[in-house]
């Protein structure tokens, strides 16, 4: 969480000039982003655009977690990958993209399935976790680990033409966590329905880019005026109307994630 404008050399000042000129970000905000570590869970339809905009924003260090390989049916919405990547690990292919895009950024590819057993180790040291994975069990395990470690969570999800993005800070008193939102019923359930239901590529792009912006809000909290993390505000996207509405998620007084401890 270090950083000051002094840490950005002339080439970096040029690269991020359009950020720095924004009063809501400024030199201090840009330098802070260069000192941040973001863990991305899921390098799919949401993770790809989120990663591209976070890398574009100069996040200094990123850890990319995905146990999947690129398939031909991913290319319609997972914007980092090309036909040459089919059969390759998504995390490794995405990390190579980051290295080409901005060699200054530090990026680590982790090709494992994140779950309750390894989540704490995988998110250790993160300033933010951005979860765009495809199932509830993983999301709950990641959320619990974030609460325990005191790491903010940007959660983004999609079903057909409805998207949802929220920032959670379940480690802070009175703030809801992701488990407050969905409850305990989905711990053992894999709800990947993309294959059966279909998904429009541009729709995940909308949600993924919004998730990146939401992550930046959380990362800049206390540094720049863009840093209003909007903890516990759920933004719901309707891609058919289209519309965007916001609702408040209250902390569940009986939550097993943030109130009575991780189960
Ligand atoms: Zn909770």
Q: Provide the spatial order of strands within the biggest beta sheet.
A: 3-2-1-4-5-6-7-8
- The sequence of SSEs as H and E is HHHEHEHEHEHEEHHHEE
In DSSP terms (H or I, runs of 4 or more residues), the helix count works out at 10
Number of beta-strand segments = 8
The overall pLDDT, averaged over residues, is 93
Shape: globular
Question: Main beta sheet: strand number and arrangement?
Answer: 8 strands, mixed
The H-level CATH homologous superfamily, spelled out, is NAD(P)-binding Rossmann-like Domain
- Give the CATH class: Alpha Beta
Beta content: 15-25%
What would you report as the Rg, rounded to the nearest angstrom? 17 Å
Distance between the termini: 30 Å
Labels describing this entry:
263 residues; alpha/beta; Rossmann fold; eight-stranded mixed β-sheet; 8 strands; 17% strand; binds zinc ion
Any overview of this molecule?
- The protein is of the alpha/beta class and 263 residues long.
- The protein has one domain: Rossmann fold (3-Layer(aba) Sandwich).
- Helix content is 33%, strand content 17%.
- It is built from ten helices and eight strands.
- An eight-stranded mixed β-sheet has the order 3-2-1-4-5-6-7-8, with helices on both faces.
- Helix 5 links the parallel strand 2 and strand 3.
- The longest helix is centred in the last third of the chain and has 19 residues.
- Bound molecules: zinc ion.
């Amino acid at each position: 969480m270090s950083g000051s404008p002094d840490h950005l050399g002339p080439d970096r000042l040029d690269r991020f000039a359009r950020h720095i000129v924004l009063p809501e970000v400024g030199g201090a905000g840009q330098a802070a982003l260069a000192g941040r570590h973001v863990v991305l869970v899921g390098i799919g339809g949401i993770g790809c655009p989120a990663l591209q905009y976070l890398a574009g924003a100069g996040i200094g260090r990123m850890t990319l977690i995905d146990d999947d390989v690129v398939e031909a049916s991913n290319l319609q919405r997972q914007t980092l990958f090309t036909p040459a990547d089919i059969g390759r690990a998504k995390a490794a292919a995405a990390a190579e993209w980051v290295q080409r895009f901005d060699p200054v950024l530090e990026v680590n590819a982790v090709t494992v399935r994140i779950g309750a057993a390894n989540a704490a180790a995988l998110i250790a040291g993160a300033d933010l976790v951005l979860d765009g994975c495809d199932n509830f069990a993983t999301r709950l395990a990641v959320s619990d680990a974030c609460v325990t470690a005191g790491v903010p969570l940007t959660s983004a999800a999609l079903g057909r033409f409805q998207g949802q993005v929220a920032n959670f800070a379940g480690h802070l008193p009175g703030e809801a966590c992701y488990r407050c939102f969905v409850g305990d019923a989905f711990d053992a359930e894999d709800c990947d329905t993309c294959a059966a239901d279909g998904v429009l590529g541009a729709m995940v792009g909308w949600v993924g880019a919004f998730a990146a912006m939401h992550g930046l809000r959380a990362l800049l909290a206390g540094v720049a005026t863009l840093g209003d993390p909007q903890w516990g505000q759920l933004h719901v996207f309707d891609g058919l109307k289209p519309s965007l509405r916001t609702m408040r998620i209250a902390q569940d007084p009986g939550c097993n994630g943030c109130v009575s401890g991780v189960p």
